[in-house]
Model the fold of this input.
Amino acid sequence: MPLFPPSAEFLVQLFILLSAAIVAGEIAGRLGLIPLVGQLIVGVLLGPTLLGPYIGLTSLTPELTGLQILATFFIMFMAGLHVDPDEIARMKAGTALVGVAIFALPFAFGAVAVALVEPGLPVTTDMFAALTLSITALPVMGIMVAEFGIGGQRLGNLVMGAALVNELTAVTVFAILLQLALGGGSSFYAAALAVVSVGLFLAGVLLISRVLKLVRESGWWRRRPDRMSSVLRSREAGFAVLMAMALGAALYSQLLGLTFLVGAFYAGLLVTQATGDSKRHQAFLSIFSTMNWMFFVPLFFALVGVEMDLSQLGGLLALGAWGVLLAMAIATKVGTGAGLARALGLSAPDSVAAGFLLSSRGAVELAMAVLLLADGVFSVGLFTTIALVGLVTTIIAPLGALWAWRSTPASRADLATRMPGGLPARALLLNPESEEPPPDDRPFALRRSPVPPPAPDPGPPLAP
Done:
């Protein structure tokens, strides 16, 4: 007799997935990896590749599929929250060039590579696959910039700005490809119609952003939040209103044939200081971040892992195709990022580190891949290949950056200064003969700040 009735099977599966994902993310973090690595791996283990047949997770149930769609919406909305239109306007031309280049070159080479290893695919499917291999993960980049202590430095600003432009470009191209796919061909007329429709959508988003900014700067707006608070009696009503707006934008983009992912992303872009005063804006970000990072993000990556089937890569031909796409994904990102960073004047170690950091993948391309799998554009084999490329490149990205920084005495010293609490275990494994810096006994919250040098000995007091 089963322990739980059939009506509770969804809750049992949700409990297993979420608990395992949280634990796996913590373990990955303690090993010096991005939590999504552990969350994806545990999803693979709980899926059809290994344990799925024994726990009923050979495929996603309708309930888990619905939850995955909701998690995908929040993932894309969170990605949009990291994009500030004002930051784009202030961005230097060199940073914007890097962002466009680290999308365009991997996209072009990726389309050729996918066509070679997966002959017979429709042109739009080929381009969708290349697109998902060309995205740099902005949230993952933010985590690595904080972990390596380069926030506010020229290198940190470059990789964050480039990742921002890369993600914005990728979402826009994704919208155009969707219009082409819906148009049923790649004719000039279909391409022109796709560009015009996406352009109109983006123009509307930017217009709303501009209007909100002007209203926010007016004296009339400063009195609105308090009056709205007196009218809206529900707890956290402002958060609920913003969520409704985001869902409305997602549905509007879906109505235009751009899928809800595009609308969710650009809805996040509109949630800035213009939507309320600073205090309310920070409160919204705090509520949303807690809900997202503690529930939807680990669950999303675990569900992606469940949908991966490594048995699809069992043959030498499939493994060879995956190896070609992995090599292309790493080489084009690292080569382009490192070359342009060097041309902009960064040191050789910092340039190579920038290239590796920019090669990391994350949530946005997986959200796109999930949607394409659900719509039948991707097969399970192609989905597994792309997700596995993203997993491996995300593991390699911080390792490659640490290897670059350990290549010269000056960059090693700078790294030890930025991370005085000691390098992660992965860094010591890259050079086991190096001396580990002295332990940092300060509270954890202060360990990212440099340890001040000891005050010089003033010597004996001067004689009167």
